[in-house]
Q: What sequence folds into this?
């Protein structure tokens, strides 16, 4: 069937075609087409102005293509035809908005290089491809489209997620199977054009773990190669051994550390053998070079020195020099030596005469030098003995000189040293007499009577080994006697000290006790008497007595202070019990710090009260719970969702670490609230812009009930003509293309007109407007119910019904993680059917029911999902209980133990927690789990560094199942 433009051109070309009767219907249809195209162009340009170029192009490219329709409507004869319409007084159709067309054309031209990349990105998203694949494509898109800031924002958010994935993948990459993954992660970190730069710690972590796995793999390789290398050595298979050594060296280098001893021991014979073979080969090479150099030196008639050097280098190998080369060398050397000998004989003759003259003078000089040397040697030897204090040896040496060399003994130097020696001999005699007298005074038959002063003088005067031994014998006898006495007294003193120490330990372990205080008062006089009873006990034992006394004094003071404070704390602490609320407890805590300000508990309680703002910040979670539950129970109105968001913002600004959380299913309606509104507008609100929105169905009333689609406006204009004249035969304009073009077809049958798909489109649009809030509150349930109602529309043909079902399910999955994860196969099934079936406008028998395979594959699945969809009322009831409730406080019965005092008994099992300033940011509150309440009892397992006595304890019911 010709399009409206083709009909206009045909009418203009015929002489009888230009009439009001023929032109008015064409003007009406043309006006409707221009209005529809202008509306779609305007919507697309609005998206373009928001920076959503891809979405704008996609909008105009949806069937029927708005740009193609605009090009078709902008025909050359348009001005001539409009003049004719004015002449015939027919309302002129609105003009096509060419400015919008030009603006969209520019965007399409700019985005042309992106088209393939965008298609690839969509395919990867549908297939849920790994994030690294999608990042590569997104980086190319951002590079091709630098003016669109959306791509860079997506890149930053995706890269942050990818870096977290890399951390996790690197952590779990273990064993040899993890090596390729780590290699890929390191390559991705080093060579990817990151917008959000990876942290240095992450890069170091991946590299270090990669190197560790490489070393592990290298060690495995070395362990595999070691026996093979040893076997090749045993078989003397040089070729295999060399190949294995190459692999061995590469693996050892990759290991990057010292080889294990067992591997070194297993391969040292093989590697040594190969090294020996290499050495021999190198020696053969060096010999060949040396022989070549000798031959070259002979060829060049080199000097004798150079020839001998070359010969030595060539002869420095196990293999002899070739005989012919050796003969050449010997002949050449003999010739050069003969010439040298002749020159030498002439020189020797001239020297002999000169030598005879010099010999006589040399003899005289040597005799005088010998005499001087003897005197110097004797003087030096005698001086050395005197300086060493060996007077006996010095006297003996002086006597020998006088007997053998009187002339040397009479020299000036020797005589001077002899006088010095006489003086030293006299001094030594005097020292010996003094030593003997002191030793005699110190010695006694009874060691107790030893004169320690005289003994000390004798020890200082002792020089010879005999003298030192005599003094040591006296000292040793006295030391043995002294040690025996000190030992007995020390043992007795230490025994008493140990008894008193055990009594002090018992007092300390008993804690503050009036009986212990009385015991300490009695212990102090006992310690004073011990020192006088054992005066010869050693210093270490006496020091222990002093230390024990200091400990007793300190314990007495501390014990008295503890008893006083315990009485005061007990009186004040009893006032804390029985509080009915957190505010009442804070007031009682304040009174305690005033009444018992000097106690240790008061200091902790003051610190606890300083954190009172932290409690209030931590409890902002309860506000989030209340606003979230209220929003769900009231059907997710925008004001309730906004109240939840503000409460959540306050939570983010107040709490760092939180023990409580919402189920992901419960959070999705809040997190995707705005997105779902946009999706809903795109799924249901865009339906009136489609071609089928203005069509109705024309069906035969008998036979196979063939059906066609015609425009609703065309039907209304030709209602009586179509319904009354068809049995006589009538030409009807039916839709014949995806773009909505029409063609004339002659019909002769009883027909009826069904208001579909026009009626269904209007119904779906009205549902989107009327039940928008219901969709936002129960996205899965509303969409699944909508598909069920769509299936029951018995005047809508199966082909369009299946297309609309696919459209609704795609939108439902786009807004729901649960549906997207469970309807993937069904959507692919519908898409495959859509591609394989004839176009929707093809005349076919009218069938209102879906195909049996669609019912079996899709509809039954939808019914099951509807029964299994999240029940937000039940989840909200559970979430309402996930609030922190004050139940008591921490108390400290003794310095090493904390316990929980419960003023309010929880009504079920759950966790016990405290609120503390965050370590990362002191302005934030962190919830810290310190125990659990189970089977009616509170159990504490808090780390000491996180808790203080007096901290309020909160109860959080068990996790939602």
A:
């Amino acid at each position: 069937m010709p399009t409206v433009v083709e009909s206009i051109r045909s009418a203009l070309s015929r002489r009888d075609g230009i009439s009001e009767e023929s032109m008015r219907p064409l003007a009406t249809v043309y006006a409707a087409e221009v209005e529809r195209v202008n509306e779609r162009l305007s919507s697309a340009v609005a998206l373009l102005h928001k920076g959503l170029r891809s979405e704008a192009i996609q909008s105009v490219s949806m069937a029927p293509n708005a740009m193609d329709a605009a090009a078709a409507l902008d025909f050359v004869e348009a001005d001539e035809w409009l003049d004719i319409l004015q002449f015939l007084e027919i309302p002129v159709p609105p003009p096509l908005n060419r400015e919008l067309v030009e603006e969209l054309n520019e965007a399409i031209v700019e985005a042309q290089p992106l088209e393939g990349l965008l298609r690839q990105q969509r395919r990867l998203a549908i297939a849920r491809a790994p994030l690294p694949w999608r990042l590569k494509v997104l980086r190319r898109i951002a590079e091709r489209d630098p003016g669109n800031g959306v791509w860079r924002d997506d890149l930053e958010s995706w890269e942050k997620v990818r870096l977290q994935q890399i951390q996790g993948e690197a952590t779990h990459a273990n064993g040899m199977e993890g090596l390729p993954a780590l290699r890929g992660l390191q390559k991705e970190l080093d060579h990817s054009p990151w917008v959000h730069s990876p942290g240095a710690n992450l890069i170091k972590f991946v590299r270090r773990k990669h190197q560790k796995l490489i070393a592990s793999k290298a060690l495995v390789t070395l362990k595999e190669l070691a026996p093979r290398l040893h076997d090749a050595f045993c078989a003397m298979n040089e070729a295999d051994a060399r190949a294995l050594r190459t692999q061995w060296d590469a693996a050892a280098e990759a290991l990057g550390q010292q080889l294990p001893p067992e591997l070194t021991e297993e391969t040292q014979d093989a590697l040594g053998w190969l090294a020996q073979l290499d050495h021999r080969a190198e020696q053969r090479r060096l010999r060949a070079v040396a022989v070549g150099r000798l031959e070259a030196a002979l060829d060049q008639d080199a000097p004798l020195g150079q020839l001998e050097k070359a010969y030595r280098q060539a002869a420095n190998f196990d293999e002899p020099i070739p005989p012919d080369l050796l003969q050449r060398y010997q002949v050449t050397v003999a010739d050069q030596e003969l010439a040298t000998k002749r020159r030498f004989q002439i020189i020797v003759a001239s020297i002999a005469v000169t030598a005879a003259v010099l010999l006589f003078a040399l003899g005289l000089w040597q005799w005088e030098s010998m005499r001087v040397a003897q005197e110097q040697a004797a003087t030096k030897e005698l001086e050395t003995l005197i300086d060493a204090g060996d007077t006996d040896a010095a006297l003996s040496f002086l006597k020998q000189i006088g007997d053998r060399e009187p002339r040397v003994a009479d020299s000036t130097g020797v005589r001077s040293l002899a006088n010095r020696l006489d003086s030293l001999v006299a001094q030594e005699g005097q020292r010996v007499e003094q030593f003997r007298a002191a030793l005699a005074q110190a010695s006694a038959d009874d060691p107790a009577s030893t004169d320690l002063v005289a003994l000390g003088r004798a020890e200082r005067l002792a020089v010879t080994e005999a003298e030192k031994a005599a003094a040591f014998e006296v000292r040793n006898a006295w030391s043995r006697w002294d040690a025996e006495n000190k030992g007995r007294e020390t043992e007795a003193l230490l025994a008493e000290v140990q008894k008193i120490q055990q009594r002090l330990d018992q007092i300390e372990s008993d804690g503050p006790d009036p009986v212990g205080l009385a015991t300490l008062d009695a212990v102090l006089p006992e310690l004073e008497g011990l020192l006088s009873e054992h005066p010869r006990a050693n210093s270490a034992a006496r020091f222990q007595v002093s230390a024990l006394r200091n400990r007793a004094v300190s314990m007495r003071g501390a014990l008295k202070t503890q008893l006083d404070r315990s009485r005061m704390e007990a009186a004040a602490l009893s006032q804390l019990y029985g509080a009915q609320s957190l505010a009442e407890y804070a007031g009682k805590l304040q009174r305690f710090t005033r009444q018992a300000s000097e106690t240790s508990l008061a200091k902790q309680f003051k610190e606890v009260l300083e954190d009172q703002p932290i409690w209030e910040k931590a409890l902002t979670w309860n506000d989030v719970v209340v606003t979230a539950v209220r929003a769900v129970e009231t059907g997710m109105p925008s004001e309730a969702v906004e109240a939840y968001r503000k409460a959540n913002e306050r939570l983010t600004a107040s709490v760092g670490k939180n023990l409580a959380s919402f189920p992901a299913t419960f959070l999705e309606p809040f997190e995707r609230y705005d997105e779902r509104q946009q999706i809903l507008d795109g799924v249901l609100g865009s339906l009136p812009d489609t071609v089928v929105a203005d069509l109705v169905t024309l069906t035969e009333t008998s036979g196979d009930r063939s059906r066609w689609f015609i425009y609703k406006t065309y039907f209304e204009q030709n209602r009586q003509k179509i319904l009354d004249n068809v049995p006589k035969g009538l030409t009807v304009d039916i839709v014949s293309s995806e773009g909505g073009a029409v063609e004339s077809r002659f019909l002769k049958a009883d027909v009826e007109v069904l208001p579909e798909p026009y009626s269904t489109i209007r119904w779906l649009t009205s549902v989107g407007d009327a039940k928008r809030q219901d969709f936002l509150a129960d996205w899965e349930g509303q969409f699944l119910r909508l598909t069920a109602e769509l299936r029951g529309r018995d005047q809508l043909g199966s082909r369009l019904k299946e297309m609309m079902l696919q459209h609704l399910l795609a939108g439902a999955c786009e807004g729901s993680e649960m549906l997207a994860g469970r309807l993937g196969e069904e959507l692919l099934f519908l898409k495959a059917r859509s591609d394989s079936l004839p176009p929707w406008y093809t005349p076919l028998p009218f069938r209102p029911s879906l195909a049996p395979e669609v019912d079996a594959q899709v509809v039954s699945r939808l019914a099951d999902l509807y029964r299994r969809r999240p029940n937000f009322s039940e989840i909200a009831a559970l979430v309402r209980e996930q609030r922190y409730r004050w139940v008591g406080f921490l108390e400290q019965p003794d310095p090493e133990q904390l316990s929980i005092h419960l003023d309010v008994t929880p009504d079920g099992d759950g966790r016990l927690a405290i609120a503390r300033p965050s370590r990362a940011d002191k302005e934030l509150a962190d919830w810290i789990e310190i125990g659990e309440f189970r089977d009616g009892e509170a159990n504490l397992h808090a780390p000491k560094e996180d808790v203080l006595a007096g901290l309020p304890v909160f109860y959080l019911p068990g996790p939602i199942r």
